[in-house]
Write a structure and sequence with these properties.
179 residues; mainly alpha; three-stranded antiparallel beta sheet; 3 strands; 55% helix; 3% strand
Length: 179
């Protein structure tokens, strides 16, 4: 993916909201929120607060959902109800595979990979890295730490963390002096 890819993804997603809501939702989670397959598959229904448009996570800041993502979740929810034994599943994303009908286990990473790659042509990891590159290049890698919960070490791969911290410190000093 290149930095112009966000515009391509939004063009791919838009027309498919009602035809492919699960694929669109998974791709959106990877690209717009930097969620890994592991994070996505672990989302439980209790983590989702539709009224507040948020998904809560244990090890990262919450994900705030757009109106489009609420539409996708609602469309996926309609499909989800048609899956046998769906009412007894605690995870948001479930498989219709007959081998998993009576098990309350998350889908596997390969399930998410297939859905995302089928829609976008990119892996979830590629979309996630593109997300982080775009955020870091526009707002600095510090936002990746604070907004996405990634480690300082990982954030430093997307830009010079020290430069942003120094600039922030200088700006804070100026505001204090001229305050």
């Amino acid at each position: 993916p290149t930095l112009t890819y966000p515009f391509l993804l939004s063009k791919i997603l838009g027309p498919l909201y009602f035809e492919q809501p699960l694929k669109c939702l998974l791709s959106s989670f990877c690209f717009y929120h930097g969620l890994s397959s592991k994070m996505i598959k672990e989302i439980k229904l209790t983590d989702l607060d539709i009224d507040r448009k948020v998904i809560h996570f244990k090890d990262r800041p919450p994900v705030y959902l757009s109106e489009d993502e609420i539409i996708l979740i609602n469309e996926y929810a309609k499909l989800r109800t048609n899956i046998k034994n769906a009412n007894n599943k605690t995870h948001l994303i479930i498989s219709s595979n007959s081998a998993m009908i009576y098990e309350d286990k998350p889908v596997n990473n390969r399930f998410i990979l297939r859905k995302v790659k089928d829609l976008s042509g990119f892996t979830p990891k590629a979309l996630r890295i593109t997300c982080f590159n775009v955020i870091a290049s526009n707002f600095g890698p510090q936002l990746l730490v604070e907004g996405f919960g990634i480690s300082l070490t990982q954030a430093s791969r997307y830009g010079k963390l020290e430069d942003y911290l120094i600039e922030e410190q200088i700006q804070s000093g100026r505001e204090f002096l001229h305050g």
